[in-house]
């Protein structure tokens, strides 16, 4: 069993939570996975959130507790939202208000407040040694749209508990996050079904 992993009881989520908390508190003394990881997935192509969710699945398979914080997005009936509810040890926080159509005014401020609240929740999970992975989905987009300050995000990431794996996604990643990440993947779009008139499809786009 890898360092930092915990056994996953099949039918008792309470035991899972208790054992998970104990093992994750001891992660920093259990082997080589002492250094935090920051993986950034950006670019104009499809698959950034999908890739992050794949990492969530892999982490759960190793018995890690995971928190997924989604910025900008507000739907709770997506395929991933429903699937995440089925995974033991996974917390899913939807912290957005949908598409940002204005860059000023009351509507924009409401979006910004939601993003700041989401970042505060992410900060709590990042500081919790029981949480092995934290995904900040669309955080790059939140920064590029002006909903969040890049330095505020950097400051939150700097306080992560030892051994935490952080996954950042979204278009237009700012230089501060590109520099901070130890792994950066640029997802580019060569062509998309939208261009051929295909609508968004359940299980593919959402």
Write down the overall geometry.
globular
The total strand number stands at: 6
Structural class by secondary-structure content? alpha/beta
Strand content: 5-15%
Stretches with pLDDT under 50, minimum 5 residues: 1-10
Distance between the termini: 34 Å
- Record the strand order, biggest sheet: 3-2-4-5-1-6
Largest sheet: 6 strands, parallel
CA gyration radius, whole angstroms = 17 Å
- Number of distinct helices: 7
Order of helices and strands: HEHEHEHEHHEHE
Share of residues in helices: 25-40%
**Rounded mean pLDDT score:** 88
What's the SSE blueprint?
Elements lengths: L12 H13 L11 E6 L5 H14 L4 E5 L8 H6 L5 E5 L10 H23 L5 E5 L1 H6 L5 H9 L6 E5 L5 H6 L2 E4 L20
Parallel strand pairs: 1-5, 1-6, 2-3, 2-4, 4-5
Q: Can you tag this structure with a few keywords?
A:
15% strand; alpha/beta; 7 helices; 206 residues
Short description:
This protein is 37% helix and 15% strand. By secondary structure, the chain is α/β, with parallel strands linked by helices.
């Amino acid at each position: 069993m890898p360092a930092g992993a915990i056994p996953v009881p099949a039918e008792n989520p309470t035991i899972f939570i208790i054992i998970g908390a104990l093992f994750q508190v001891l992660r920093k003394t259990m082997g080589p996975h002492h250094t935090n990881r920051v993986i950034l997935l950006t670019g104009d192509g499809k698959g950034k959130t999908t890739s992050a969710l794949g990492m969530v699945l892999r982490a759960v398979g190793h018995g890690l507790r995971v928190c997924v914080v989604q910025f900008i997005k507000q739907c709770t009936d997506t395929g991933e939202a429903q699937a995440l509810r089925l995974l033991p040890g996974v917390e899913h926080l939807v912290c957005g208000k949908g598409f940002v159509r204005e860059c000023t005014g009351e509507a924009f401020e409401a979006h910004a407040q939601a993003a700041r609240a989401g970042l505060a929740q992410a900060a709590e999970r990042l500081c919790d040694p029981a949480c092995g992975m934290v995904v900040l989905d669309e955080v790059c987009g939140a920064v590029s749209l002006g909903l969040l300050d890049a330095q505020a995000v950097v400051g939150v990431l700097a306080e992560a508990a030892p051994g935490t794996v952080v996954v950042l996604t979204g278009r237009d990643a700012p230089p501060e996050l590109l520099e901070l990440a130890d792994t950066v993947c640029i997802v580019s779009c060569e062509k998309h079904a939208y261009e051929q008139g295909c609508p968004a499809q359940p299980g593919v786009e959402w």
